[in-house]
Write a structure and sequence with these properties.
about 775 residues, alpha/beta, TIM Barrel, 2 domains, eight-stranded parallel β-sheet, five-stranded parallel β-sheet, 27 helices, disordered C terminus
């Protein structure tokens, strides 16, 4: 029989139950028992849902209270020494994820570094290895969750992050060694875990090696072969499904197909061409898991086309050697399309969320096993929906396409270089050395969220809601003046999300009520759906920027989300190249920038935190992507006068490999995340001799820890070791939307105090002592 299966599922629950339980626990409004009971209930309901939808193998141990890479680190005993003073259990787990705040005599503890999970919008916590790292097994979580599922009668398959990818995703302190050098010490822990899972009754185990979809060195493939020979021996008669996803295996495919594993999962959405070679290389008795349903996007699968692929593979291998699955874990898609009343019937008919994708998997498995007649009604309903989408007049706009065709090279460049612009900008907007600012948003407190909900529900009149927002904006502006920030922001109280807010003001976008996906920890986002050509209906931010600027004589930043980030953080139409959609968005942002400048806003920030995360996983594909994304940013930003200062913001990514493209954005100021990495990321800017201005974050906003003045000055000192004072801005790592005012106010006050103190010392220092020229 063809096996219907899944690689992983949403953790948050249909109504973000886990998010709410986590935040109540962190706020000390409930205890660990309540949190763990919520988690147990969610696991049970998710397993039963998948079984009832027809899956013959259901993943377990894919659930996490915060992050599956952190779970893997603790499972093998990777815990940096700085957490040794934190009590074991949940306290230590969340300390590693979120840090520990400084309190009284107790010193703060920095959280693990966080970065993007491949090219998704999910963030993982980076394992930290010592050169002499020792590993030890803590099998409690995978064994307990397998036992839970088994007791419920669920055909569960434990999921493990593979040892090769786990090491490649981490960092090691010893510059002379690579994390993968640690594999001989790590593998015995995995061997013991496999033996214990087998003893517990597991027939299958899924081992994820997503790093195999990236550029893999020959030495890594040799290590992979050695590792899996040992793991296969330890597994014995327990079947191993090696799962790869997020792209094709490229030159690694032959080596992967030689591994002694029972089945290999292939992402056939992103790498459809690899199937033909894989079928030729498959060993006798080995199975292929076909990732035919897109686990990264929300469009319906073309079931007829997918069934063609599955039937061809089954004909060549045999039906009993085929698994049907999503391309990757459904962690990246919303839970369920049912109940989405905001979407009209036509648009809803084009979509599939997590639950619907599993239904598609089950349909494909039945069709392969029992023939197309057994699923004829489902295939016809799917065909009608897809045909309707392709022919819908809602998708294409002749006006948008004419404007896109009229873009010229001159529209992609500022009139003069940065060195000239800087003089005009300082004349128009005088600023002190080491100017202070924030990234944009201020805390979205309960009263802000309640007012927004009341307004949307019709319980608050537009004029009442507008008055409320103006009051909050005025309070934020007054406080920024009092604390002494140099460049202010209006706080973004009118915005629900940095992408959704703009999408609501653009044609071609649709929105869900409950289409949440996890970004990190308890943080969930509700990506817009880009279904058609994009155009601006009118000014989106000008009114609030103008109002905020009217409250102060200090410069007020206009805050925009960039075209690449709007693209990356949305569910994007799949019927045209992403570049075309991105440039349509860029033209809309260009119009907004022009209106902000006309309204007297002299500093405009266009955030692009997602530019790096969208980078293709294989280096051969980078040049094309970077060309059209850099041009998209320049198309959005380059239409202003020299005296208008353009900022951008990026967070949680490695810059070394793309620093020339970041410079090519030609933003006057770039702010970046650096606090968790202790300014490590600035090395790329120093080596490149980045010419423009930089704001390296000195306040980790993803942690409740409030920075000390000494800590901020230490980080700024590290920055000044590689940057000139004239280049340096002082700001947090990211927006402050998720933090509390009682954290934000002392943190920003500390930031201002540290900048002023350092500014004073620099004024007293000879020019030769003031950092690099």
């Amino acid at each position: 029989m063809a096996i219907a299966t899944n690689l992983g599922f949403s953790r948050m629950g249909p109504h973000r139950e886990l998010k709410k339980a986590l935040e109540r626990f962190w706020a000390k409004k409930s205890d660990a028992g309540v949190l763990l009971a919520t988690a147990c209930s969610l696991r049970e309901s998710h397993w039963k849902l998948q079984r009832d939808l027809g899956l013959a193998q259901v993943p377990c141990n894919d659930f996490s209270l915060y992050d599956h890479v952190l779970d893997a680190a603790l499972m093998v005993g990777v815990r940096p020494g700085r957490f040794g003073g934190v009590a074991e259990g949940l306290d230590r787990y969340f300390a590693m994820a979120r840090g520990v705040a400084h309190e009284g005599e107790r010193s703060g503890v920095a959280a693990l570094e966080m970065t993007k999970w491949f090219d998704t919008n999910y963030h993982y916590l980076v394992p930290e290895f010592e050169a002499d790292q020792e590993f030890r097994l803590d099998a409690a979580k995978p064994l307990a969750e397998f036992a839970e599922a088994k007791a419920l009668g669920i055909p569960a398959r434990p999921v493990l992050l593979g040892p090769v990818s786990f090491l490649l995703l981490g960092k090691i302190k010893d510059a002379g060694r690579k994390p993968l050098d640690l594999w001989p010490a790590l593998v015995p822990v995995y061997e013991e875990l496999l033996r214990r899972l087998r003893a517990a009754g597991a027939d299958w185990v899924q081992i994820d090696e997503p790093c195999l979809a990236t550029d893999v060195e020959p030495s890594t493939l040799a290590t992979l072969e050695a590792v899996y020979k040992r793991l296969a021996d330890a597994a014995g008669n327990m079947n191993i499904l090696l799962a790869t996803y997020f792209g094709d295996l490229g030159q690694a495919l032959p080596a992967v197909m030689r591994l002694p594993v029972r089945a290999v999962h292939l992402d056939l959405v992103r790498g459809p061409g690899q199937l033909r070679e894989a079928v030729e290389l498959v060993a006798p008795g080995q199975m292929l898991s076909l990732g035919l349903v897109d686990g990264r996007n929300i469009w319906r699968t073309d079931l007829l086309a997918a069934l063609d692929v599955a039937e061809d593979a089954a004909e060549r291998l045999g039906v009993d050697r085929i698994l049907i699955a999503p391309s990757c874990s459904l962690l990246h898609t919303p839970y369920d399309l049912e109940g989405e009343s905001k979407l009209d019937g036509e648009l809803k008919g084009w979509l599939a969320f997590g639950r619907q994708k599993l239904e598609e998997v089950a349909i494909l498995a039945r069709g392969v096993e029992h023939g197309r007649d057994s699923v004829a009604d489902a295939l016809e309903e799917n065909r009608v929906a897809l045909t309707g989408r392709r022919s819908s007049p809602r998708i294409h706009s002749a006006q948008v396409r004419r404007r896109l065709a009229s873009v010229t090279p001159e529209m992609l460049a500022r009139e003069n270089p940065y060195s000239t612009r800087r003089v005009d900008q300082r004349a128009k907007t005088p600023l002190p050395l080491l100017p202070t600012t924030t990234i944009g948003s201020f805390p979205q407190t309960d009263d802000v969220r309640k007012a927004r909900a009341s307004f949307k529900a019709g319980k608050l009149r537009p004029d009442e809601y507008d008055a409320f927002l103006k009051e909050r904006t005025a309070e934020a502006v007054r406080w920024q003046e009092e604390v002494g920030l140099d460049v202010l922001v209006h706080g973004e109280f009118e915005r629900n999300d940095m992408v959704e807010y703009f999408g609501e003001n653009l044609d071609g976008f649709a929105f869900t009520e409950n289409g949440w996906v996890q970004s990190y920890g308890s943080r969930c986002v509700k990506p817009p759906i880009i279904f058609g050509d994009v155009a601006r209906r009118g000014p989106m931010t000008v009114e609030w920027a103008r109002y905020a600027q009217s409250l102060t004589a200090r410069p007020m930043k206009g805050m925009l989300t960039g075209p690449v980030t709007i693209l990356q953080w949305s569910f994007v139409r799949d019927d045209q190249p992403r570049r075309e959609t991105c440039w349509q968005i860029a033209l809309a942002i260009r119009d907004e920038v022009a209106d902000l400048e006309e309204a007297g806003i002299a500093v405009i920030q266009i955030d692009e935190p997602a530019l790096r995360e969208g980078l293709p996983l294989r280096r051969d594909d980078w040049a094309e992507y970077l060309r059209w994304t850099v041009d998209a940013f320049r198309l959005a930003s380059a239409g202003v006068r020299d005296e208008t200062q353009i900022h951008t913001h990026m967070c949680y990514c490695e810059f070394n490999d793309i620093i020339d493209s970041i410079a090519a954005l030609d933003a006057d100021v770039i702010s970046i995340e650096t606090s968790r990495s202790q300014m490590e990321l600035l090395g790329a800017f120093a080596e490149f001799r980045y010419p423009n201005e930089i704001g390296p974050g000195v306040y980790d906003i993803h942690s409740p820890q409030i920075p000390t003045r000494e800590g901020v000055e230490l980080l700024l000192g590290k920055a000044l070791a590689v940057l000139s004072p004239e280049q340096l801005w002082v700001n947090p790592d990211c927006g402050l939307k998720t933090r509390k005012w009682e954290e934000v106010k002392p943190a920003l006050a500390t930031l201002v105090e540290a900048a002023r103190a350092l500014r004073g010392r620099l004024a007293e220092s000879p020019a030769r002592d003031r950092g690099p020229a």
